[in-house]
């Protein structure tokens, strides 16, 4: 039965694995694409950052990347190298040179079959065609980029929405322009990206100026200018200054406009080619037109148009020049510029352009609907696959329950037999456990009795040791008392001898006339005095037994002490007073004080220190 059970479980496992494989197989290619895009993005994230924040290392890094790509010969690396070269040239406003590099990047991207770089190049094509005023083609490439970046790369999608908003503004479709700007701002709310926000504020100000919300436009442009200056983004600084000067002309603040233009002229004359400087001259023309200085206005307009050509960015200036010539009565020149204005306007906003854009939008809308339909179909298939897997799992579950039910009786029978065996085993184990418990209790009682005996023995030993220590202490006290008595006896002998010497001295002083008798008395006194050193040796012997380390420690700490000074210290250790010490040493109180003073100096004692206490502590 165990074999059948194992076979059933293996079959069930295979069914579940097959279901999961069937459910997730359609997602495998999408996961691979996602990983590939993630890898390519992470590889070039540093370059994106250098370009975005206008790093001084940008030019060197682009050249290095390009040389490495040429060495490798890899199509994808060459595509990215040319792409970043285009972006770096755009930052420097080298618009005339980017077309060739962009075509190279497009060629290599097709060879590499990498969707991410293709979408990035489509975006740059959109920027290039927008610069040329070919807005229908610009929208085409922006739509291609948007189609890829949606649900894949929000940072790039923000850039696409901003450029779509700007393109629709130049096509005078303010509604769609604002819609795309709003989409970009919605994505930026969840990101810390000050540069992208500043770019959006700059481009959106065009809509605000069109709607005559001048204060709102000014706030956005001034905030963006501070951001670009903080990141040293020269191109965006110049573009923002252009828009600020246009705004000030719109609001008839000519002096403020000139202030911005002077700052702009200083930057562009150092950083860019003559083409960008032409845009500055055209703004000067607008300012002097506003101020009524028509001659200077015409002069600046001509200088600007010579440098910029008739690109869409400033094509409305042609209308201003035409109006200006009408005012001063030069009608031939006025009609000439008016014709140029209408030609460019028709190429940008003509009916044919709008028809192409409408056709392209319809085509893109159709593709979006088809894509949405495809997504819905895939979603429906996924749901159906999920339902199918759920149903199969339910069927498998029912079969499994049935299998369990058919084996229930046999399992119960086996369980009954095993229960009986378990009961018998439990009885035997309980009996063994009971015997072990009895044995454990006996061992425990024996251990407790042994512990009690050990405790009593310990108390007895403790009591005996205490009594023995008491006897030793009593014996020590008795020995100390005997030695003290012996020392006292020696001291008395010394005192009596000194008294005898005093008496001899008195005899000599009183019997100076009888020389023979005096000589006899002196000899007796000297003979008796010779035994003084023996008495001192007996005293020293007893002192060493009472204080064995005193002399050694004293001489070790203070080796300069004389013999007499050491004896004085020994007497102080015995706590004798000054009278007793002078009598024992047979010296005067003055001599004793002098000796104590010498001892204090050699011990380096201060006036507040007590000599007797120091001697007692040694």
UniProtKB/TrEMBL annotation:
Transmembrane regions listed in the UniProt entry: 7-24, 386-405
Keyword Oxidoreductase set for record: no
Residue ranges of TPR repeats: 278-311
PANTHER family: TETRATRICOPEPTIDE REPEAT PROTEIN 29
GO molecular function, one term: DNA binding
Official protein name in the record: Tetratricopeptide repeat-containing protein
Classification via PROSITE patterns: TPR (PS50005)
A cellular-component GO term for this protein: cytoplasm
Keywords of the record: Coiled coil, Cytoplasm, Membrane, Repeat, TPR repeat, Transmembrane, Transmembrane helix
Coiled coil, from the record: 423-450
Database matches in SUPFAM superfamilies: C-terminal effector domain of the bipartite response regulators, TPR-like
Keyword ATP-binding listed: no
GO biological process, one term: regulation of DNA-templated transcription
Domain of life: Bacteria
Subcellular location: Cytoplasm
Family: Belongs to the Rap family.
Predominant location category: cytoplasm
Species the sequence originates in: Myroides guanonis
């Amino acid at each position: 039965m165990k074999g059948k059970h194992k076979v059933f479980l293996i079959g069930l496992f295979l069914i579940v694995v097959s279901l999961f494989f069937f459910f997730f197989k359609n997602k495998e290619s999408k996961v691979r694409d996602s990983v590939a895009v993630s890898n390519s993005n992470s590889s070039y994230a540093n370059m994106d950052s250098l370009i975005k924040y206008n790093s001084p290392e940008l030019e060197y890094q682009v050249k290095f990347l390009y040389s490495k790509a040429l060495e490798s010969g890899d199509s994808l690396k060459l595509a990215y190298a040319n792409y970043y070269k285009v972006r770096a040239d755009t930052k420097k406003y080298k618009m005339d040179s980017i077309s060739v590099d962009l075509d190279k990047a497009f060629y290599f991207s097709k060879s590499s079959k990498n969707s991410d770089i293709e979408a990035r190049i489509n975006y740059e094509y959109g920027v290039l065609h927008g610069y040329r005023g070919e807005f229908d083609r610009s929208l085409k490439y922006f739509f291609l980029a948007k189609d890829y970046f949606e649900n894949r790369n929000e940072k790039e999608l923000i850039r696409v929405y901003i450029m779509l908003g700007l393109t629709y503004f130049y096509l005078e479709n303010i509604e769609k322009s604002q819609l795309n700007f709003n989409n970009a701002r919605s994505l930026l709310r969840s990101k810390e990206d000050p540069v992208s926000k500043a770019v959006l504020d700059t481009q959106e100000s065009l809509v605000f100026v069109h709607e005559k919300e001048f204060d709102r436009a000014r706030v956005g442009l001034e905030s963006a200018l501070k951001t670009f200056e903080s990141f040293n983004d020269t191109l965006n600084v110049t573009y923002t200054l252009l828009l600020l000067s246009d705004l000030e002309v719109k609001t008839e603040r000519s002096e403020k406009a000139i202030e911005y233009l002077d700052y702009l002229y200083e930057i562009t004359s150092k950083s860019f080619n003559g083409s960008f400087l032409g845009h500055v001259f055209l703004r000067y023309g607008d300012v002097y037109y506003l101020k009524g200085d028509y001659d200077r206005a015409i002069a600046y307009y001509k200088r600007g148009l010579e440098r910029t050509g008739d690109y869409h960015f400033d094509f409305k200036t042609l209308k201003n020049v035409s109006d200006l010539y009408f005012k001063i009565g030069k009608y031939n020149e006025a009609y000439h510029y008016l014709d140029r204005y209408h030609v460019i306007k028709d190429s940008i906003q003509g009916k044919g352009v709008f028809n192409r854009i409408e056709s392209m939008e319809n085509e893109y809308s159709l593709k979006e609907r088809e894509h949405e339909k495809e997504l819905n179909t895939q979603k429906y298939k996924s749901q159906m696959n999920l339902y199918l897997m759920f149903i199969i799992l339910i069927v498998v579950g029912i079969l499994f329950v049935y299998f369990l039910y058919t084996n229930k009786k046999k399992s119960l029978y086996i369980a009954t037999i095993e229960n009986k065996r378990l009961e018998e085993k439990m009885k035997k184990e309980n009996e063994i456990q009971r015997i072990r418990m009895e044995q454990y209790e006996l061992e425990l009682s024996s251990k407790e009795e042994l512990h009690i005996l050990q405790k009593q023995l310990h108390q007895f030993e403790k009591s005996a040791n205490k009594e023995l220590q008491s006897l030793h202490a009593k014996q020590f006290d008795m020995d100390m008392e005997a030695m003290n008595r012996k020392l006292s006896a020696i001291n008395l002998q010394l005192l009596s001898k000194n008294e005898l010497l005093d008496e001899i001295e008195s005899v000599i002083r009183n019997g100076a006339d009888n020389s023979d008798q005096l000589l006899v008395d002196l000899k007796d006194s000297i003979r008796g005095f010779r035994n003084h050193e023996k008495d001192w040796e007996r005293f020293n012997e007893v002192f060493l037994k009472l204080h064995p380390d005193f002399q050694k420690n004293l001489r070790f700490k203070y080796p300069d002490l004389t013999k007499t000074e050491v004896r004085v210290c020994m007497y102080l250790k015995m706590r004798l007073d000054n009278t007793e010490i002078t009598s024992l040493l047979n010296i005067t109180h003055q001599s004793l004080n002098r000796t104590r003073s010498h001892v204090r100096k050699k011990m380096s004692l201060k006036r507040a220190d007590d000599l007797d206490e120091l001697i007692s502590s040694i």
